[in-house]
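Q: What does the assembled structure look like for these inputs?
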Amino acid sequence: MLDQQAHLDADHLADYLRGELDSDAEARVEAHISSCLVCARRLQAAAQLEELMYAAAEDLPATAAVVVRPPVWRRVVATAALTAAAAAALVLAVAPASLQTPASTDAVAQQQGASFDASAFVNDALCFPAEAIADAEVCVEPLAVAMTTDPEDYLSPFDPDSMRPFGRDDARATAMCLEEGPACDPSAG
Amino acid sequence: MQKHGRRVVVSLIAKGVLPERAKELAQDAWLRVIQNHRRGKLTELKVPGVVIKQATFLLHDDRRRSSSRYSYESVDGSVQPHRDERELEGQAAARHQLRKVREIINRAHPNARRVFEMMYDGEARSAAEIADVLGLSVQRVRQIACELRKTLRAELHGGSDA
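A:
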């Protein structure tokens, strides 16, 4: 019953026993088994292992229905949602604050002796120059500034003609610049 | 029937029956169980357990008939105690192996354990179905199962992997 063909490996035999092979591959395994004593014994050993595993599974305490990883469709939806959220955050970050400046920040700025123009600009963070405010740490986080529900509020911080910030003629507004914003250099013009 | 049919065949192959004969015996066992169920002889139909028992009975009957046909040993009964002894030894070895398998499964990685539970919980799920539920790729599920079997073979038999 021994032949010269290569013997079947244990994984292939396990796939056969579990019915994971297509009909052609299954027929080839059966044809080989019928003429190869070594593989017939291996198949028996693999089947005994399968039986042991079935028996072991019967008595194992059931693991809580915890999904190791969410299904693919859920991951796709989650990725799409995260992408949309990131895009929205990016839009909010580059959009002007317009009318939605947090009152608390405004109050802090006024308390520090600086007036805050709500139509100023928003970038990574809106900070006040050190001359105007003793505490240089006072910055407005972009998401907090730009949180608004009306898309009409997202106005460009720059004058489309001059490409300079609105209110540039105002000395205080001039002092309030974007961080590293090329169009908002107080020393320029 | 199709869902659990494989399990019956595997149980026969584990007893040393060649695949083709195992399929024939399994089919015969299914037919008998269905007939008995229709006649009302089986009040409770637990598949595949009852079919595996029926198939095992058919196998023993098959072997008894062929051994009485070709051998005289069973006539005087002298073989019987020896066979019982071997069966007892086999049962003890099986219990020991089962205990070992449980230990190995218990200390396996949670992912491997989850795949194992879904693969062998009697629902006869395919690797693709398990992959879908667990959110893993089919290839990964097969890989986990293969690694687990490899570990089991190594610990049960000293591991000769071909």
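The CA atoms of residues 32 and 54 of chain B lie 8 Å apart.
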